[in-house]
UniProtKB/TrEMBL annotation:
SUPFAM superfamilies: P-loop containing nucleoside triphosphate hydrolases. InterPro entries: APS, APS_kinase_dom, P-loop_NTPase. GO terms for cellular component: cytoplasm. This is Adenylyl-sulfate kinase. Residues 42-192 form the APS kinase domain. Its EC number is 2.7.1.25. GO terms for molecular function: adenylylsulfate kinase activity; ATP binding. It catalyses: adenosine 5'-phosphosulfate + ATP = 3'-phosphoadenylyl sulfate + ADP + H(+).
């Protein structure tokens, strides 16, 4: 699929530019605060960014399971999965990745407004795109988690064989190989190797749960 099918064309471009006319906001009587009280938690977005193979999906699922066991309502938006549906018209050009992140940011905002802990797990390689998602959320409810795993670690894992294909020139524009990744400058949580080894999935999730607890997201 070519990159011309993405943000540059049709509805995507119109939405990004905000070109629709004669539209009005309709307020509903039940609001975010009411839903949060019902759920006994605060809506937020946990945005996990990092290279392919850094452990984003593993962290997202482990965190989702841990929150579920604490009777907290969470929902995972995984980049790979969303590209099977909502974002199946997008490829991996810079423009398409930007549109991918914009759409997921908007969906995540709705989930957070619904009172859920929305766990978004995408490479999201561009700082500006992540910052645009942050700007959609009320103060402090966008929690950026940087899975800071060295490229060599991600490449040695290579569970889908994509790095191998990228090194062989069979995938062009692969993040970390011949496409950029811009690490966060000011994220809320950084997960990295300690003494040369990666924290276990449950330790990674524990780091995020501790943050959510400390900031009061797990109570209303
Ligand atoms: N060119 C290229 N670069 C990076 N990744 C690629 C590419 N082509 C396919 N894939 C697969 O797509 C998954 C990343 O999708 P995302 O939506 O998270 O990417 S992005 O945020 O729009 O950059 C990514 O999944 P993860 O390995 O889970 O990160 C890959 O499986
Ligand atoms: N904390 C971890 N320690 C060891 N291996 C991990 C860890 N997290 C993920 N993995 C392994 O690394 C590979 C990539 O993980 P994945 O969650 O699919 O990454 P991503 O979603 O960033 O591409 C998988 O084989 C997974 O089992």
């Amino acid at each position: 699929m070519g990159s011309t099918t993405g943000a540059g064309a049709g509805a995507g471009a119109a939405a990004a530019a905000g070109t629709a006319n004669n539209i009005f906001w309709h307020e509903c009587p039940v609001g975010r605060a009411d839903r949060q009280r019902l759920l006994k938690q605060k809506g937020c977005v946990v945005w996990i960014t990092g290279l392919s193979g850094s452990g984003k999906s593993t962290l997202a699922c482990t965190l989702g399971r841990e929150l579920h066991s604490r009777r907290k309502l969470a929902y995972v938006l995984d980049g790979d999965n969303l590209r099977h549906g909502l974002n199946k018209d997008l490829a991996f050009s810079a423009q398409d990745r930007t549109e991918n992140i914009r759409r997921v940011g908007e969906v995540a905002k709705l989930f957070a407004d619904a009172g859920l802990i929305c766990i978004a797990s995408l490479i999201s390689p561009y700082r500006r795109d992540r910052d645009s998602c942050r700007a959609l959320l009320p103060d402090a409810s966008f929690i950026e988690v940087f899975l800071n795993m060295p490229l060599e670690v991600c490449e040695s894992r290579d569970p889908k064989g994509l790095y191998k294909l990228a090194r062989a020139g069979k995938i062009k524009g692969f993040t970390g190989i011949d496409d950029p990744y811009e690490p966060p400058l000011n994220c809320e949580i950084e997960i990295k190797q300690e003494e040369g080894s990666c924290p276990s999935p449950s330790a990674m999730a524990g780091q995020v749960v501790s943050y959510l607890e400390e900031k009061g997201f797990l109570e209303d």
